[in-house]
């Protein structure tokens, strides 16, 4: 079933805007895009749009166009968010789709403001002393993404009951990114692994920047992997509070993304010059059975909702 038809999106301009977001998700977020195929067709457009907006802002900071001013670009995005919440029509297709998604799901403005504030923090060389300090950044960069997605996934009870799991979902993915991308982040002048935790293993920023295998670095990374797995367990505990039809998507996303941690371990934590990637075969093994079930439900039981 066409996801735009399933969502009742008929206006040509709006369909084009949603399609642009889908293309962004397919290009940049292969793991999450694969997981979204397990959502009911009517919910996929909203998930693609929220991903597309986050990726658009993230790219402005991480990979700015030559000669551009990332701070000014973020201000431009913030101005368009103002337009969205004022009920106007923004001049960017991603924001056009976002405007419709915000209206459909009743998403609050503060989640987007917090996200953009965390993006602004990344404009300067970055490091965090403690997990408490990092948590303040991660609320805007990760927790709010889970909270934005929560109405798209839907819940079986009060959304507030499912919020802790949604926050943990965003944090688990973000912490995994920090570990996978630690070398790339150092190139950008950023270090998201808290300095006090690193120091407990005898690791400094300077030692990491040498990019050499070291037993102290290995021990520190093993600790961070174990700590991140605990966040995955909290996220998994919240899956049962989601609508049944959304659970396969979230379970697959959790399994696939936690697989990055498995690949880090398989590399013996030698990730300062290499990138841990979940092999395509493993992604398919995880996703194909629920994909087949989703296809069967939509093909033979399109009129029935769980």
Describe the structure.
The chain has 306 residues and is mainly α. The chain contains 15 helices and 2 strands. A two-stranded parallel sheet has the order 1-2. The two termini are 16 Å apart. The model is unreliable at 302-306 (pLDDT under 50).
Brief summary of the model shown:
The chain is mainly alpha-helical and about 300 residues long. The chain contains 15 helices and two strands. The chain has helices spanning about 5, 10-30, 30-35, 40-60, 70-85, 95-105, 110-120, 130-155, 160-180, 180-185, 195-200, 205-210, 215-235, 245-265, 280-300, and strands spanning about 125, 190.
Keywords:
306 residues, mainly alpha, two-stranded parallel sheet, globular
Please work out how many helical segments DSSP would assign.
15
The largest β sheet comes out as: 2 strands, parallel
- What coarse outline follows from CA principal-axis ratios? globular
Strand content: under 5%
Computed over alpha carbons, the radius of gyration is 20 Å
């Amino acid at each position: 079933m066409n996801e735009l038809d399933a969502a009742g999106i008929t206006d040509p301009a709006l369909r084009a805007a949603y399609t642009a977001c889908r293309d962004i998700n397919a290009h940049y977020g292969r793991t999450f895009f694969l997981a979204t195929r397990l959502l009911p067709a009517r919910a996929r457009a909203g998930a693609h749009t929220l991903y597309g907006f986050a990726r658009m802002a993230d790219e402005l900071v991480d990979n700015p166009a030559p000669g551009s001013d990332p701070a000014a670009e973020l201000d431009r995005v913030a101005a368009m968010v103002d337009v969205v919440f004022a009920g106007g029509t923004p001049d960017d297709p991603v924001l056009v789709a976002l405007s419709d998604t915000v209206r459909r799901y009743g998403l609050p403005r503060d989640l987007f403001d917090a996200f953009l504030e965390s993006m602004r923090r990344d404009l300067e060389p970055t490091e965090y002393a403690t997990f408490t300090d990092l948590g303040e950044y991660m609320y805007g960069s990760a927790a709010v993404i889970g909270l934005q997605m929560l109405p798209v996934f839907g819940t079986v009870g009060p959304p507030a009951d499912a919020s802790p799991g949604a926050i943990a979902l965003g944090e688990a993915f973000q912490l995994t990114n920090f570990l996978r991308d630690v070398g790339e982040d150092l190139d950008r002048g950023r270090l998201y692994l808290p300095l006090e935790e690193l120091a407990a293993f005898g690791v400094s920023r300077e030692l990491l920047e040498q990019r050499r295998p070291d037993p102290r670095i290995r021990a520190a990374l093993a600790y961070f992997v174990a700590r991140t797995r605990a966040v995955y367990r909290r996220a998994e505990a919240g899956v049962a509070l989601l609508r049944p039809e959304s659970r396969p998507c979230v379970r697959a996303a959790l399994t696939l993304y936690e697989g990055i941690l498995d690949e880090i371990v398989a590399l013996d934590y030698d990730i300062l010059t290499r990138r841990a990637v979940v092999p395509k075969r493993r992604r398919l093994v995880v996703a194909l059975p629920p994909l087949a079930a989703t296809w069967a439900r939509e093909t033979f039981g399109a009129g029935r909702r769980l």
